[in-house]
Amino acid sequence: xxxxxxxxxxxxxxxxxxxxxxxxxxxxxxxxxxxxxxxxxxxxxxxxxxxxxxxxxxxxxxxxxxxxxxxxxxxxxxxxxxxxxxxxxxxxxxxxxxxxxxxxxxxxxxxxxxxxxxxxxxxxxxxxxxxxxxxxxxxxxxxxxxxxxxxxxxxxxxxxxxxxxxxxxxxxxxxxxxxxxxxxxxxxxxxxxxxxxxxxxxxxxxxxxxxxxxxxxxxxxxxxxxxxxxxxxxxxxxxxxxxxxxxxx
Length: 249
Prior knowledge:
This protein is mostly helical. The protein has helices at about 5-10, 10-30, 40-50, 50-65, 90-120, 125-140, 150-160, 165-175, 190-210, 215-240; strands spanning about 70, 75-80. It has a two-stranded antiparallel ribbon with strand order 1-2. It is globular and about 50 Å long.
């Protein structure tokens, strides 16, 4: 991966974060009040200079945070924070952990196949994009930032390298919700969280190198190990009851 490529690539995850944060601040500052409709997708795309996909993901992040809701045929509207349901943190964490596990189970057969096809079909440009996204995850880890958007961008790049648009559409339809938000920790230390993120990065590295080497079987196995490993970690937390508030990564 050359320096010029690194300079020109802007992580999709970074763009999503920038747009979602801008919209979040507009809502919290009262620029958009409860009950008010957000600008249309086309208007937000033009205003922020990003793609429609980025806008959709940014709005999805706001929906997940309970700041807005989509009304079919009408648009996206700002919610009153005081009207959101109240759940105990422990109940919310267990529900989210269960949801993360269900999503991982659905992703596994699809993304195992995607990794194998990417190893066979990726173009030089797609291979470079995968390496760039992989580097983006490491950059987030080293900067102590959430890796969720960068993680999603990497999996999306692998899906697109299959050159079968349905794989990419599957991930786009789910958005960053496909990336687990629960903190997989045995304790509450920042060091443990960083160690977990580095484990994910190493698992990604095995997948990326197998795809780069054109090794279909190794790519499938590496993706299977990555997603099955996440399932095992989630099931262990549910069994042991060891979980805490999500980290959005």
